Amino acid sequence: MTRPARRPVVGIIGNQNVINDSYHVHASGLMNSEAVAEVAGCLPLVIPSDPRLVSVAELLAVCDGFLLTGGRPNVHPSEYGEDETPAHGAFDRQRDAITLPLIRACVERGQPFLGVCRGFQEVNVAMGGTLHPEIRDLPGRMNHRMPPDGTLEEKFALRHPVRLVPGGRFAEVFGATEVMTNSLHGQGIARPGARIVIEGVAPDGTPEAIRVADAPGFTLSVQWHPEYRAATDPVSRPLFTRFGEAVRAWAAR
Fold this sequence. Notes:
Elements: E1 9-13, E2 15-19, E3 23-27, H1 30-39, E4 43-47, H2 56-62, E5 65-68, H3 93-109, E6 113-116, H4 118-126, E7 131-132, H5 152-155, E8 160-164, H6 169-174, E9 178-181, E10 188-189, E11 196-201, E12 207-212, E13 221-222, H7 236-251
Helix pairs in contact: 2-3, 3-4
């Protein structure tokens, strides 16, 4: 019996949630798995992001690439040398303990990852950068948070353009120097980390697209949510397609 061809594995960082105020789960949105399977062409595998259950070394060995997902809890400010305040919101210290060293290991090894929203922020922190706890409180900035009401389509609707560096990696992927994106985040980059290259910004100057300079692998990360309608959106599809190509190249080494 012929075995089916093995798809490269993309580890999808799971978030801790509580169902009905009592049942704890590690979960990821269906749209993340759909984007990985249907657009990137890889096998989605949700990771329980807790160092008591998994280690970075094990994840690097099992997975070929990683999707650093969004999530309501924020990176704890102690990870970038600041004190916790009410503006920083909720946290997931277990996820911090997995993703930050995982990102640094992937950068060094050339193992591909795609950062999304919180994942975008994790990449900046992992490389030594800092975050603003609340973008909308800064002078001249727009409210980048998800609308509190409305349908899923309304919450994930395109809300602002992102200007891309001409000749940069993102402009090459998208074939454009400006794209329209959704916006569902409260925090954002304050100081870029070492080797963080900002290639895309919102009209108010908020960083929206970054990569790690001189990294041997795929390190593109975006502040918006490209997993929404990834199969049909003209910006999301090429991003996940290129990510999938990078993961297959890693798996075929």
